[in-house]
Amino acid sequence: MAFVLSCLFRLMIWALLTADLSAINLAIGLGLALLLPHARGPGEPLGPTLRALLRSLAAVPLAYGEALALMVAGDREREGWIERPAGDPNNRLLIFLEVFAITLTPFTIVLGLSEGSRGPHYTIHQLRPRRRRTEDTQP
Predict the structure, then answer these.
(1) Any bridge partners for residue 120, and if so which?
(2) CA proximity to 109, closest of 121, 87, 125
(3) Burial 118-137 (b: 16+ CB within 10 A, else e)
(4) Widest Cα–Cα separation across the chain
(5) Is the full-model pTM beyond 0.70?
(6) Would you give per-residue pLDDT tens digits along the chain (139 residues)?
(7) How far does CA 80 lie from the centroid of its chain?
(8) For the chain, which end, N or C, has fewer CB atoms within 10 Å of the first or last residue's CB respectively?
């Protein structure tokens, strides 16, 4: 199952890079996906990986909405550091997908992965639009 998912992911990346969905191009991409070396080792748990993949896909429209909110808010921003729980730090694919979903958000970046008393967590720096107060809008 992991081999099939890996090949499909590689084929999707190939199609995105070449921007060509012709049969010959997909055949070349499939050949490359099969011939490139695959990781060996313990299989990744499917449940957490699929949840992280769905969160990564859902992050795309959310990122557009947040970018629009930042454009409307203008230069009014507040910055802060937050901590968000992380998945299994030994699962590299899960960490990649979680960091991708966080960093996709405009003005948000993961500063690190730490082990705390509550388990592993990401330290995140983010900028957000400030909420306009009523005295800010009055002349």
Answers:
(1) 115
(2) 125
(3) eeebbbbebebbeeeeeeee
(4) 67
(5) no
(6) 678 888 888 898 898 889 899 999 999 999 999 998 877 666 667 788 888 888 888 888 888 887 787 777 666 567 888 899 998 888 877 888 888 888 888 778 899 998 888 889 999 998 776 665 555 555 5
(7) 20
(8) C
Q: Which residue has the tokens 């900028």?
A: 127
How far apart CA 13 and CA 7 sit, in angstroms, is: 10
* The token pair that represents 88 in the structure block: 């299994």
Amino acid type, 131: R
Give kind and range of the element (H or E) at residue 134. helix 134-137
For residue 73, give the nearest of 139, 129, 20 by alpha carbon. Answer: 129
Contact (Cβ atoms closer than 8 angstroms) between residue 66 and residue 105: yes
Q: Dihedral (C-alpha) 11, 12, 13, 15: value to the nearest 10 degrees?
A: 90
Query: Per the structure block, which two tokens stand in for 87?
Result: 């998945």
Over its C-alpha atoms, the chain yields an Rg (Å, rounded) of: 20
- Looking at residue 11, its amino acid is L
Distance CA 68, CA 12 (A): 28
